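Re: beginner question about structure tokens

> Can someone show what the tokenized structure looks like for a real chain? I only ever see the sequence side.

Sure, here's an example I had lying around. Input first:
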Amino acid sequence: MNYQQGLVSIVTPVYNAERFIEQTILSVMAQTYTDWELLLIDDCSTDNSGKIIQRYAQQDKRIKYHRLQKNSGAAVARNTAIALAQGEYLAFLDSDDLWIANKLELQLFFMKSHDAIFVFSRIRMIDQQGKILKERIPIPTIVSYKTLLKRTVIATSTVLIHRTRIGRFSMPLRRGGQDYATWLLLLRRTDYAYGQDECLVEYRVSDNSLSSKKKNSIQQVYEIQTQDEHISKVQAAFNTFCFCLYAFKKHYL
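And the corresponding structure tokens:
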């Protein structure tokens, strides 16, 4: 498939996101780099998410709304967006996160200057009201497949992929952890993901993300490593332990 040169296709799954989706859309519309399309895939929301998105889609033809026929999870929603995307580049943005205004401009420059295929950046953590929880979270300059097995360092809303160089891909059909599984998949195709030491994304911490959601994430890491990556249970358990230590440090220290 011939992708549109210079176009960034932004993948955003949406489910009952009416509280924050307008802010998320506006952060994309404010980008200094203007050659983008925003693909918002509604996973059968029961709130006003669809109405909010369609209002903005009528104002800006770069905003594209698609509603799934049945609730299928974030992986299906993201894969639907990837299949519809026309851009040379793929970016990911969760429906409650925010981009700073020159995120795409800075990241495309960084990608070209490093001849990179897969890049990500730092985040700033914010709460439900937009208050800063943590200003600076360090990231490594490069991340290999082996590094990612032990560390949670790539935030989904910071990722930019050079699509024509990485090749066609889709996210594993998991209800949870499909982003982590995808980064592992992509790092088997390229040596490194490059970390840009600039805060380009405001990552919103949800009210339930410090309890059962964290336990689910730990289980998903172990399952992905043993089931998808075919890593031994002993090695996967050790990797998951290291993963937990880093996650704790990132959130609390």
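Each token stands for a local structural state, so reading them left to right follows the chain. The two ends are 46 Å apart (CA to CA).
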